[in-house]
Each structure stands twice: as C-alpha cells, then as structure tokens.
C-alpha cells in the first residue's frame, strides 16, 4: 500500500446528491491511516480557489470527487506538483474513471486509493488547457452551448432529451482539417482516454501512450452519427467502419465552419486549436490490475 502522510478531499457538492455523496465519501475515507482535509464546494466557481488552498498545505494526495468536468477543470493545478491524484467518480458518465478501471461506487473507488498504486499518465491539451479524458466537436457541444438555463432542472431528463432532439434537427455535418488533411465529418473526438460520455468510443487512445488521438466520425448526413453511436453502445465492430484516426504528439485542428469544443463536458474552446499530449505529467491512484 502506498504510504501517504496527508491528503485533501475536494468534492463538487453543488447538488443535493453531491452533498450526500460528500458525507458518504468522508465516512468511507475515515479508515485511511492518514489525516484528510475535506472540502465540500457548493459553488463551482470556488473550486479552483479551494484546490489552491488545499495545495498550500502540501498534501501528498489530492482526492477529487465529481464528474469528468470537475476533474478536468482542476487537474491543471496538479501538474508540476509533487502530489498524487485520487479519483472519486461522482458524475454521470465518469469516463476518466472508466478509462483507468476505477470502480464507479464510492467504496470501490476508496479501496483503489487504499490499496492501488500511483500510475504515471498523460494529459491532453487544447492549446494551453490541460484535460483528463476527451474533447469533442459536433452535436454534444452544440447541445451544451444552447440548452436553456434551468431546462434540465425544471423538466428533468425528458426536457434535456427533447432539446437534444431539437438540436439534432438543426445539426449539419462539417469539414474537419487535421494538419492539412480534410474530411467531411459528423463528430470529432480528441482523446487521451478510450471513453466518452460513459461509452467506449476511441479504442486507439490510452492514457500512457504518449500520443493524442483525433477520431473523426465520417459522414455527409446526420444518420451516420446515429449509426456510429448505436454500434458503439452495443460494442459492435461496425463502430470502426466509418471512423478515421489521426494521432501524434501535436496536431493542428480546424473546421469549416468554426465549431465549439466541449472539454470533458464543458464548452471551453472554438476551432481552430492545437491538440497535443502532455506525456507523463501526473500520477493517479489506479487499480493494481489496471492495464
């Protein structure tokens, strides 16, 4: 078991479920043999200040509890620090945890922190912004960028699904250019990890490969995207039939028209961008049997 002297726990506790998960996490972590400073952050805008305050105490381990967006938004603060990342997957998709083989329940994730081992991994970058798992162009950032504020809160998943269907009717294929080579696409995934939206999509990516992978879903009509997602959900080999892979340490990515980019679920950039890999820049607690 890795010997830590101290740790910090930072949980995105914006929702009632987040606050409940924070209490559950604190109970599960009590059995660890070192002190843990715990922070429940109810306002996402305070997350960055909280992690800086936690890092000022020089912990050996920083445990982040939240979804992919929370982890991706805070991981920048850990680069270059002598600290190990622990992951509590408290989001909806938890793609980063899935990529690492971390159990999706709190008790299982805490057991990885207790008995796992630090694994040196890469991070992706969009221009100067680090990200943990996957960035995307296509309908998903279009939905995230346009969904009316409070729609999901008021009408729940049905309201969100209705908005997604409405955006699908407006969505159009676009042209992707990677290092001068152009293709017509319906979706693009810029990946450091294999999962996106909780689904295994980019088999060619790995968190310790030393490459960034751009997967283009080829097509000139919208049904191509539906076919690719359906094949991916059911793990059918046909999911590879309509994709094109670009990979390298640094790739220049542009689109016609310019497209918004969601980075681990948060719309944070617009093409053109440079996608690159930051090889081996962070340690994360992972299961001992993880590949």
Topology:
Layout: E1 7-12, H1 16-29, E2 36-41, H2 47-55, E3 61-66, H3 68-74, E4 84-89, H4 95-100, H5 106-115, E5 117-126, E6 129-131, E7 134-137, H6 139-146, H7 151-170, E8 174-178, E9 181-191, E10 195-196, E11 199-200, E12 212-218, H8 223-233, E13 243-248, E14 250-256, E15 260-263, E16 266-270, E17 273-286
Helix pairs in contact: 6-7
Point out poorly predicted stretches: none
Instruction: Give me the Rg, rounded.
Output: 19 Å
| % residues in beta strands | 35-45%
The secondary structure category is alpha+beta
Q: How does the overall form come out from the CA principal axes?
A: globular
Helix/strand order: EHEHEHEHHEEEHHEEEEEHEEEEE
Whole-number mean pLDDT: 90
Number of helices: 8
Helix content: 25-40%
Largest sheet: 15 strands, mixed
C-alpha termini separation: 19 Å
How many DSSP E strands? 17
Tell me about this structure.
It is a single chain. The model has no long low-confidence stretch (mean pLDDT 90). The protein has a 15-stranded mixed sheet that branches. The chain is α+β, with helices and mostly antiparallel strands and 291 residues long. It has helices spanning 16-29, 47-55, 68-74, 95-100, 106-115, 139-146, 151-170, 223-233, and strands at 7-12, 36-41, 61-66, 84-89, 117-126, 129-131, 134-137, 174-178, 181-191, 195-196, 199-200, 212-218, 243-248, 250-256, 260-263, 266-270, 273-286. Helix 6 (139-146) packs across helix 7. The two termini are 19 Å apart. Helix 1 (16-29) links the parallel strand 1 and strand 2. It is globular and about 55 Å long.
């Amino acid at each position: 078991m890795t010997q830590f002297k101290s740790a910090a726990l930072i949980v995105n506790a914006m929702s009632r479920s987040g606050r409940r998960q924070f209490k559950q996490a604190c109970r599960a972590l009590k059995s660890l043999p070192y002190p843990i400073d715990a922070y429940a952050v109810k306002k996402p805008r305070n997350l960055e200040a909280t992690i800086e305050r936690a890092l000022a105490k020089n912990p050996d381990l920083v445990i982040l509890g939240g979804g992919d967006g929370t982890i991706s938004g805070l991981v920048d603060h850990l680069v270059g620090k002598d600290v190990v990342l622990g992951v509590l997957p408290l989001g909806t998709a938890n793609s980063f945890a899935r990529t690492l083989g971390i159990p999706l329940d709190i008790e299982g994730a805490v057991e990885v922190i207790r008995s796992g081992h630090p694994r040196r991994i890469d991070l992706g970058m969009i221009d100067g912004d680090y990200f943990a798992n996957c960035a995307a162009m296509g309908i998903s950032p279009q939905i995230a960028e346009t969904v009316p504020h409070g729609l999901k809160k008021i009408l729940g998943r049905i309201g969100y699904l209705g908005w997604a269907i409405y955006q699908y009717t407006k969505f159009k294929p676009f042209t992707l250019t990677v290092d001068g080579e152009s293709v017509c696409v319906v979706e693009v995934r810029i990946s450091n990890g294999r999962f996106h939206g909780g689904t295994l999509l980019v088999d060619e990516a790995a968190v310790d490969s030393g490459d960034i992978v751009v997967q283009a879903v080829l097509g000139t009509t919208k049904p191509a995207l539906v076919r690719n997602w359906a094949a991916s959900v059911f793990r059918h080999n046909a999911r590879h039939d309509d994709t094109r892979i670009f990979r390298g340490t640094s790739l220049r990515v542009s689109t016609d028209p310019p497209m918004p980019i969601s980075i681990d679920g948060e719309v944070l950039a617009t093409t053109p961008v440079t996608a690159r890999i930051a090889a081996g820049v962070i340690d994360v607690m992972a299961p001992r049997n993880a590949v």
